[in-house]
Amino acid sequence: MSNPGDDGDDFELPAVARDDVLTGAAADSADSEKHLKNLPRILRYAKLLGDHARHVEQRLIAEIDELCPDLALNTAWAVAQDVDTGLALATELDRRAAEYNDPNLRSLSDCVRLLCLPATRGGLHFQQYFRVAKALLLSFEIIRDRDEQLCCEMERFAFGWAALPGCAHISVGHASAAENALMLGSRMVEHRIAAARQEAIQAQEEKLHLTEEAEQETAEISGRTPTAEDNQPSDRLIVARLSADEMKNYRLKEILGSLKNVVNVPLPLVMVPPLHEVRSKLLLEFPYAGRVIDLILSDLVGRRIVQLRPMILVGEPGGGKTRFVRSLGQALNLYVWRTDCSRGDAAFGGTDRRWHSAEPCHPLLAVARSRTASPLVLLDELEKAPSSSTSNAGRLWDCLLSFTEAETSARHFDPALQVNLDLPRISFVATANSLDPLPGPIRDRFLVVTFPKPGAEDLDALLPAVMVDLIKERGLDQRWIRPLDENEHVAVAKLWQGGSMRRLRRIVEIILRERDLSATRN
Asked: Which of 44, 160, 291, 325 could bridge across to 184 with cysteines, CB 3.0–4.6 Å?
């Protein structure tokens, strides 16, 4: 019987085209980030996982194929992508590393474990987790003198992974070990970040106080009165700048309207609230979406200003995606501007001043409504946007591209105001039932997040929020409405076995209506 790693082994597996194996290598070679290429291999893959990069496994498979061509276990893992096959491949790479005295093969085996290990359960695979943790921490020591932001991300992942065996009771069972490492790493630094932020705010206030006193003394000596612009806070942003001559344009006066309170005005940026409090609020309302919540909030760890990367929540109709985005914005203190994409076109990006229907871009309208420079724009049912526009404006999908790129959003040209707007702090979150109609450029610029549907086990957690919503719609005081009694609760549980939140709302609404009718009859 031949060894498991021999090239001549026949595993009776489906053939994998070599071009498919090399997909990851092509993607990796196209990566222009030098700091990523110069990282130790295991940290490079940790960074890719943290950035939610695509084809991560394929990149590793391509690297293994380059050093060990036609390795049967590598082909098997490319097909199966399961834990046992991955660990068998890692063991074979270790064997070859010892046989050929090649450290590259050993680092590749560590990376295979990094990608294939599941969430920790009952001490299973403990030695495997320990080995990857050791490799991560040793590699982290090598890069400690590099870019602070990069070190922050790598520290979060490395120490989060090291904590996995002792935190099995709070890990997410259906998520991978790497995803749990990101979540744990984020939670480990929440209080340190909050304390550091508070200390920085106090230091800034003291510095500001001293600066104001110094400026006041200087002004008294020079006889000049200090102005508001002498000391503009760093947590504010001027989104729209217009000169005095531009403000005199008669067409512009008609367009400005309510925008006057945001033109040439430093608007506040929304600060990141305590993330553990945000997470608790969202989990209370959406207990079935813990993985999505942790994924979104992990981007805000270590940040001062709230800004979410562009993302699409994809899930079945009625799963609560739109409500989740609204609750997310509320928990983060963001104003939420909703756009119904089924009736949207490129007028979202503004219409020309020469038209009688001239209007600024919708993100600027969101800024004006919120009076902050960092609102959240909800793109509801993005896949339903017309694929071809009958108007002169064009497709909504096309105009979104400039808002979701950091460089272009910082100088978006508004056709109504005829000036560049500074909109880099706006968060764009879309919902969709399917990705099929969306063009490739949209999929590339948005992080795709699968939004789960609630199950019957989530009923007790969901009912209070549903009741509050229905009571608000009726314009009643919830203090006067009693919760569902035992018989009503049993009826709801029997009629709703999970799935659509809309169906749950209708069931509860019918029960409340019957309760009202019964009270009227009696």
From this structure: 160
